[in-house]
Write a structure and sequence with these properties.
This protein has helices at 4-26, 30-49, 53-76, 82-109, 113-136, 150-162, 166-193, 199-202, 217-225. It has one domain (17-197): CDP-alcohol phosphotransferase transmembrane (TM) domain (Four Helix Bundle (Hemerythrin (Met), subunit A)). The chain contains nine helices and no strands. The chain is globular and about 50 Å long. α2 (30-49) runs antiparallel to α3 and α4 (82-109) packs antiparallel against α5. It has 226 residues and is mainly α. 77% of the residues lie in helices and 0% in strands.
Length: 226
Amino acid sequence: MRTFTGAIGTGSKWLLDRIVSALAATGINPNLLTLLGLLVNFGAAACFAVGKFRTGAIVIFFAGFLDMLDGQVARRQNRVTAFGGFYDSTLDRYADMALYMGLLVYYSVSGRTPYVVLSAVATAGSVMVSYARARAESLIPLCKVGFMERPERLVLLIIGGVFNRMGPVLWVIAVISTITVFHRIFYTWQETKAGRFLPSLKANTSEPSPNPPVPDFRARLRRVQR
């Protein structure tokens, strides 16, 4: 027997598939959808800056929907590229910072200095979570430990906006993001200490020979004398 939530999931998947198919049929460039998602997030940031948290939360939800579409449209059009992934990740960082900038402006204009500092810490934590993973995965195969990745942060911002409880949400993001960064630092240290590097780096990190060759200084002297 199908459950109610299962029926909702099936219906949502069917609707999303139809939207993806329609967009893919237009031949739209997936990178354009990524850019559109960034612009929508700028709109959410503007809502936050003037204290319209509920409106901002709704706009973030729409931006998240666009963020789901670009990758699926790219796969449907067989246009998945390495640059597309890089472009998407880069614009995601700008979108994240824009949302926190909106909160910074709001709390600054309101004269609530502690929340200005809290917003700045949440911004730094959010950026560092992504950077720590990217930098770690240039050394080791995978670094997805921790909790506060981008989807979780966006869900929390939506909850904070809908229920007008942005202060507690920022505390959660700031604290757990910082914990996640330190967790990833420790995990990467463990992995590198155990020698679990990317295959391309293993040759460069091999142990030096215990008996390195002794330079032939006499041969060098003869070459100089010539």
